[in-house]
Every structure is written in C-alpha cells, then in structure tokens.
C-alpha cells in the first residue's frame, strides 16, 4: 500500500503498489513530433509535424543529427504552446546514446534546468511521469519531457556500422529516427480561447515499472525481453486503480513489435485480462509491414514518442479515444552487458492520459 | 524434463512457475516457439547463388589476367585485389549491405565480405578522427578474423615443426 504522509501534504497521491493518481491532473500544453524520412513514408507519415528528409539533419554525424532533432522538437513544442524556453521550469530528457549525448548537445541552447533520464526506449513514459509528478507536487508549473532516437546512431552504438553487410533476424526491430516533446503544465496554466472547442489532454495517473528479467539473452528479440515488463505495468495499473482493460479506449505499448505484442497479449490473458481488443503497439503502427521491410516493427525512444505526439494525441483531440494507457517499453542492455553474457532486462512506464472538456 | 515436454512450454507454465530460473527457462522455450525465423533452406539457396556469382566473377578475372600473360599465382593475386576493390567501392555506395541482406553467408564468406567488414567501420568511424576513429575501430568486425587467423597459423606452424622434427628423429 502507499506510504501515508501526514507531514504537510494534504492528500496521499500514491495508489496501490506502484501507481500515482494526480490530484490536479497536469495538462498537455504543447507537443511536437519530428520524424525521419522512413517514418514519414510509413502509415503515420501524415501525422507528424515535421519530416526531416536529411538523415544527418544538417549535422555532421549521426549523434549531431539526433541532437538537432531534439532541439527542433523542443523548440516546436514550446512554440506550439505559445511559450518561451525561459517559461519552462524543468526539462526532463534522455536518449539511447551513451551518457545521453544527443540530449546534452541538443538542449544546451535552451537554457532550461534539466534532469537527464535513461529508460532506454521507455524514456518518453519515464520523462512524462517525472514531469507530471513535479507539476502536481507543486515543484514546477511548466515542464517539458523530451526524447529522441536515430536509426544510424543506434546501429552504430548497439550493432554494426551502417554499411556492414549482414542479415537481420525476423524478430529484430528498426530503430525509429525521430524526436518527440511534450510540455506539461498545471491545469490552471490552460488558457483556452472561447472558440476553441477541443478538449484538453491530461495526465491523470502513472504506474512506474520495475526492471523485469525473464532471462532472454537475444538482443535481436527485444520484444520478447520487454513483454514481461509491459505486462507487469499494465497488470499493476489495472489492479492499483481497480480498473478493467476496457476502461481504456486504447492500451498503447511502445516498441514490442509484432513478436512482443503477441507475447504481451498472451501473458495478460494468463493473468486474467484480455487486452487483445484495445491493445496497440507503436512499433507495429509506425512502419508498414508489407512495404517497409522492418521485420518486427519499429523501436527506439522516438518510436513511442512521435507516435504519442503525432498520432495518439490527435486521436484524443478528435475525441476518438478518451482514455488511454500509454506504456512505452525499454530493453536495458549495453554492448558490454551483452558481450559479458548477461540477459536483457526490460522496463516499462505506464502513463494514464485522459481528455477533459 | 524430456525433449518433448520442453517444446510444450506455454505461457501458462511460465506464469505459474514460481522458481525463477525454471521460469526463465520456460519463458525462453516459449519465446523460441513464438519467434519467427528465416527459413535456413531458402537462405542457403540464396547464399549458394550469390556466393557462386561472386566466385564466378573472380574466375572471370583470373582467366582475364592469365590471358594477359600473368602466371596462375599472380593472376590469383590480382583477382583478390580486384574483388577487394570492388567490394570496398560497393560498400562505399551502400550497395554491398543490400547484397548481403539477400545473399547472407554467400557475401560474407568470400574475400569481398572481409573487405566489407573493414571498409564499413572505416566509413562509420571516420567522424571520430583518423587515429581514434578509423585507426582504432577499423578492425572492430574483422579483428577477430585477423587475430585468430594469425593465431591458428602460428599453432599449425608449431604442429608442422613438431611433425617435421619427429620425422627427423
């Protein structure tokens, strides 16, 4: 059960084993999605704000390119929220590269106090979770959550140089090139024009994931590594809030891909929840299985981030989906841990997103 | 657990297993079952086809060099140089990886695959400088081949020496 706190905090916001229910649900003030060329050619291509055709994004290396994507995403989100960088209290960001270099070099010019986070491909869920807690806790009025990934940068760091000839297994996923940013603010920050009939998007709760290791050592089958983590978060979200899967219009996982998504549904079924009707995986949605030859789908921090900011938020604004459980998933491996024979643990972070009129 | 039972591990078994190492084992079996795999037979056919074409191209060059008057050994040497050159050029233009995606081991086993595995890191790590980039990382993929190639030739050399020596004795 949650920790009871009577020293100053008026209410206890922790729910169940690992969830938080916000008292004044933080509101999404602005968001942006920058996608790479291949993502732009995919089924969600028309949803993204900007499609960056140049793989180097005008930079001189893959890492530099990713930094530029992050900067672009942050600036666009700030602009869309009609704010200035100085209005933002905190920046919570991370990426896949060692020591978060895409983030550090990308956001340096913004001059926003920053917390760097690493949740592998689940980073968007982790950064939104922390941002929402900062806001509802009264520590900040506006926070930006940001992440990115780059196909070539990830291949270089985790796998092989781009021009090396090899065959990818069918369970492998394709790292998404893209960056997504979300600006959260306290509900009183929402300034709606009278003619604006769109609903507002709120983060009403979160379920923080544990590191889950089911002993899979195949780093080319990340869906299988992460599926138990996603299942655990969804399970605890449902039990902590005492909800049924159909409470949500969509349960959206990050980058399990075709292989992982099937495993997740199987695990949930055995745990007594049928999520097959409303489950969606960003990695499955972002690329076309028939024409884009990505094998098991998309992956990377950018995968869930730009699907959320480009596609999911759009569906919510249109009131097609009113309540969504967003569960980005991450595979916690490095080339060192892999070479030393370790398994690949997974993590997932659950964020409950709901619209309010 | 018998072989047959092993393959039958279902998600139910995984969820109900309380012992962690047994659970991991069952999950691995389950994953093995649900993960799609390339057909090794089709891949082998592609590899045979592509590898065969590369070797035929090599033979064409050898014949060509011999017709220009080179002896067999020199012609083979020129052929190797030509194939390596072609592979590096194709790597630079990003064509070799496309070929490898289709041809698999057919493109990895011939000398062209070795050339590709050296050229690709050189291109990738160029940004990190001549010394720490290209210099340190050019053999990240080919390194093991070089090291263990030299090591095994060294072992064989010793073996050869011992055999020779024992004959003399």
UniProtKB/TrEMBL annotation, chain A:
It comes from the Bacteria. Coiled coil: none annotated. SUPFAM superfamilies: Thiolase-like (SSF53901). Pfam families: SpoVAD (PF07451). Transmembrane segments: none annotated. One of its GO terms (molecular function) is acyltransferase activity. NCBIfam families: PRK08304.1, spore_V_AD. InterPro entries: SpoVAD, SpoVAD_sf, Thiolase-like. This is Stage V sporulation protein AD.
TrEMBL record, chain B:
The keyword Transmembrane applies. Keywords: Membrane, Transmembrane, Transmembrane helix. It holds the Pfam family SpoVAC_SpoVAEB. The chain crosses the membrane at residues 40-66, 75-96, 102-123, 135-163. This is Stage V sporulation protein AC. It comes from Anaeromicropila herbilytica.
